[in-house]
Amino acid sequence: MKPKLPRGLTEVLRPPTWPGTVERPAPPSRIGLDYDTAWARSAPARVARAVIIDNVTRPIVHLLTAPEVEGLEHLEPLTGPVIFAGNHSSHLDTALVLSSLPARFRHKCVVAAAADYFFDRRWKAALWAFSLGSIPVERNRVNRKSADLAAELLADGWSLVIFPEGGRTPDGWAQEFRGGAAYLAKRCGVPVVPFHLQGVRAVLAKGKSQLRPGKVSVRFGDALHPLGPTHGSHREEDARRFGARIEQAVSVLADEAETDWWSARRRAAGGETPPLRGPEVAAWRRAWELPDSARTDLPRRRVGPRRSW
Question: Is residue 280 situated within a structural domain?
């Protein structure tokens, strides 16, 4: 038989009540920016992810896209963590970039993913944190919490893949680059390697669910560092100007993908590189000017070796 407590002691031990006139605080969130991804960087998770990326993700990506990877020589002299920043047109972009990176970067790399899209459900957050090493970030601005996490990982030797547009292109042309990559590079003292993905939108565009296999290209550029004071100025390059220079570097890679190395460099030297965001004209003109590699209404090229008859 359970002993009865004295009435006074019962009143003391009773759970407290919340005043009816005071608003209750929201319970702590476990998704979005608050999702803890540390478990996905544990040794067992890293080993499992490496096995999946090397033996599942890469073969599937190569089967669908037969990627042509250019510019890997720019990564050879880099020894520390790197921020990889480039254009964004498809959900395949992340897997394609990771599949194209050398193993020393691929196996110690995290991906900045939109907290409101990839981390809005616990099952989605766990899936992307495990399969791609994703971390939640605020896509519309530099958030202190996500920036601190990214900076901590960069300091710990992790590289970062980030899409400065904040989301996939809605019409095939790039959107304005936000300042997260430039800010983190300046804060952490790490280089930014620009990259450009060509042809991925035609394989799987935003709003589409059907895959259309075809050839794509991945181009990496020279590593960029924030400029220090020059003899003409005592001020360092700020994040805004550095971010614009990152976008310009991706524009040059896009020009090279559509033409050739020499023509793209000649236009870059003359300040005539076509803008990555496309012409500032009416929507129908923008669609008309879109390169064939970014269009979704054209037949896709054959993937794989041709038959010999």
Answer: yes
Show the DSSP H helices in 76-213 as ranges. Answer: 93-100, 103-106, 115-118, 122-132, 144-155, 180-188, 200-203
Cα 32 to chain center, whole Å? Answer: 16
In a domain, 148, yes or no: yes
pLDDT at 32: 87
Instruction: Give me the domain span that covers residue 99.
Output: 65-112+139-225+235-293
Burial class (CB in 10 A: 0-12, 13-18, 19+), 55: exposed
Q: How confident is the model at residue 306 (pLDDT cuts 50, 70, 90)?
A: very low
Has residue 194 been placed in a domain? Answer: yes
| Length of the chain counted residue by residue | 309
Average pLDDT over residues 24-32: 68
Instruction: Write out the two tokens for 59.
Output: 């073969």
How many domains does the chain fold into?
1
d(CA 263, CA 175): 24
Across 240-254, average pLDDT? 95
Q: Which of 2-16, 20-34, 191-205, 284-298 has the lowest mean pLDDT?
A: 2-16
Contact (CB, 8 A) for 111 and 105: no
Give domain status of residue 19, yes or no: no
| Number of other CB atoms surrounding residue 158 within 10 Å | 18
Structure tokens at 57: 């993700």
Residue 283, domain CATH: 3.40.1130.10
Instruction: Specify the pTM.
Output: 0.86
Residue 29 carries which DSSP code?
P
- For 94-132, write each residue's pLDDT tens digit: 999 999 999 999 999 999 999 999 999 999 999 999 999
Distance CA 9, CA 94 (A): 60
β-pairing verdict for 83-86 and 109-114: unpaired
